[in-house]
Each structure stands twice: as structure tokens, then as C-alpha cells.
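Allow me, if you will, to draw on your knowledge of protein folds for a short while. The matter concerns a single protein, recorded as an amino acid sequence and a row of C-alpha cells. Kindly check, if you would, that the fold set down in the C-alpha cells agrees with what the sequence suggests. You will find the record immediately after this paragraph.
***
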Amino acid sequence: MRFSRIFLNRLQNQPGAEDTVVVIDVLRSFTTAAVALAQGARAIYPVEGVAAAIALAGKVQHPVSVGAVVGGDPAPGFDFGNSPSQLMNANLAGKTVVMSTAAGVRGLQRFRQARQLYAASLVCARATAEAIRAAGSEEVCFVITGEWVDRDGDEDIACADYIESLLRGDQAAPEQFAQRVRDSDFGQRFAAGTWPNLPLADLELAAHPDLFGFAMQVRHEGEHLVIR
């Protein structure tokens, strides 16, 4: 099995990825998505752009809109922000979640042509590794979405390192990767307690390795991407 990395927000030209692509957004898109599924959501539609997400929410049954704009503030007019701790208290049984975020969702849309596409975060890292192994993947590309000009993205790099170590058969201790999530530039903003829309409870959830036993494979349904 061969491994590579792509950093979504770097400006230089980057290669494509066709086999197995794992788009990682630990803080917070794909921690939020995992919580939504655990809370009973029947499907998650990752949609790029607030207007497009609102339009799709008007067409699906039992919609719940979840999302944020650049910086982490809730998307205007949405039912929930991109907050996994907020969704832990929500009854999403049978609901269809329409999600729009500035990083993770954009990454899925960019690599939608991949043979196998996964949304991943630390809370479902081991399950993601197991799904990749079971699929017989030969090449795995990790897409790091959290690196920006003011953020080191190490929360996502740590998750990629953990999944790769599992696929290589290493006996890595999950807590070392969880600590990197907490110590990352963005993680420290949650810990500081000075950003109203970046609650510490979100960080504590996002830094919980293997909380859920399912992977989030992304499939095509017509023109849309969907996670079930």
C-alpha cells in the first residue's frame, strides 16, 4: 500500500488522486458528521456553498442544515453550526443532514472522482483504516484540509499519521495523536475559551480517538455526494 498527502489550501499545483482518497477535517466538519450519524441521521449531503445547501435542504425529506463559514462561525440561516457537541444533544433520528463547511466539504467535492472516497476524523480513524484495508486499496491519499495561513493543520496531519500507522500495522498509541489535536494551532483556539463559536466541548469530542466504530464512505447519488 502506497501513501501520499495533499494539502487542500496550498496554492501551488498539486497532483490528482484517483484510487482511495481520505479527506480529513478533525476540527470540525467530519467530527460533526460522525456525531450526526451516531445521533441517527439517515444521510449527510456535503454541499459546497451556503446558497446551494439551502436550496438542497428545500428539496429533501426531513432536512436539517448544518454548517459554518470560514473561521468557524455558524452559517447564517442554518439549523446548527458546525459543532459536534451541539449535535450530541440533538435528535436526528431519520433526518437528512445537509452540510456546508469551508474546508472538509470543499475537499470532498474536489476529489469526488476518486474510486473510494472517505470523510475522516480522529473519532472514526480506526474504522476508516479497517474499511480501507477491507477494500483492498493500493494507493491512499490523505487530504489535509485544516492547514491555512494562520493554522498549522496538525490536527488533520495527526489523524492522517494515525490512520497510516494503523494501515502499516504499527502499534501506535492513539493518545499521542489526540494530544496533537489539542496542541494544534486551531485546537488551542478552542482551549483558550475566548472564541464564542469554538467551544472547548468541541475540542474534547474531536480529540477522542475511535469514539465511533464506523467509517464515513462518500458515495454518489445522482449529482450529489452522500454519506450514510
DSSP finds nine helices and eleven strands in the chain. The domain at 2-227 is CATH 3.90.1560.10 (putative 2-phosphosulfolactate phosphatase). The first strand starts at residue 2 and ends at 7. Residues 154-167 form the longest helix (14 residues).
